[in-house]
Amino acid sequence: MDAQRTIRRQISCVGIGLHSGNKVNLTLKPAPTDFGIRFRRTDLGDHEVPATVQNLAGIQLATGLASNEVSVETVEHLLAALVSAGIDNVIVELNSPEVPIMDGSAAPFVYLIHEAGVKRLQTPRKYLKIIRPIAISRGDKRIALYPSDHFKVTYSISYDHPLLRHQSRTLRITEESFVEEVAPARTFTFLKDVEMLRQNGLALGGSLENAIVLGETGVLNNALRFEDEFVRHKILDAIGDLALVGYPVVGHLVAHRAGHALHTEFAAKILEETLAWRLISAPVDPATLPMVVQVKGTAPRLAN
User: Fold this and answer.
1) In CATH, which of 3.20.110.10, 3.50.50.60, 3.30.1700.10, 3.40.50.261 is domain 127-286?
2) What is the 3 state secondary structure string of 150-166?
């Protein structure tokens, strides 16, 4: 059977919080069977916040979690990297309320996981297999899950911008496809919104080094990693937000202009719709086994 996994050894890095602008030390540590993914605030007496939809906190341009008045923000990129690498159990230690933004993508976190290595545990992994459609919509924003033999994502976005009017992509998500096609895609923002965000105490750590910034006619800072990097990043966000379900999902996720608020509302709805899915164990799929893959983007600076 396909077994649960953790990382093989502890590994650390340093980075900047996107909204706080503060330096953050992050450490990934191995964890036992059925532990799940838990964030541990070392600056607050090692209080833990499990990465579950029950601990969902305010959504303000990123996904946040809280438990017993202890919070952690901007978790989605790291969660996407962990679940796409098949990591079921891990401790994420932070000395700050935010996961560091790194280069704005999940590629640095993929690098960390590969450097730490993957360890198979003795307990079979459970998958949440969709057997009936689940869907919600809010105005022109829509998201749904349909039965499928694999985890697949179809995402489309639309903006009133000459470079970004409409993008759409469908990908079957495996470890390899995530590393090559999704992880390097960076978060993006519009120049006209940056000043407003900073006046509201947000994006204080944002820079041309950790986000794609769009001016009126094009990208300000550097070349895109993909022609459709924007929609690929939305796929990355959706994978990270859906990790809050607590099980790897087997189904076809279809989203249009959804965003973090709808992603996380949908994660909660999935667990409520108990007749629409069942938990299964699956045989080992060679496509899901750990591998070392060249990662596009910048490797993180490892902590001493």
Assistant:
1) 3.30.1700.10
2) CCEEEEEEECCCCCCCE
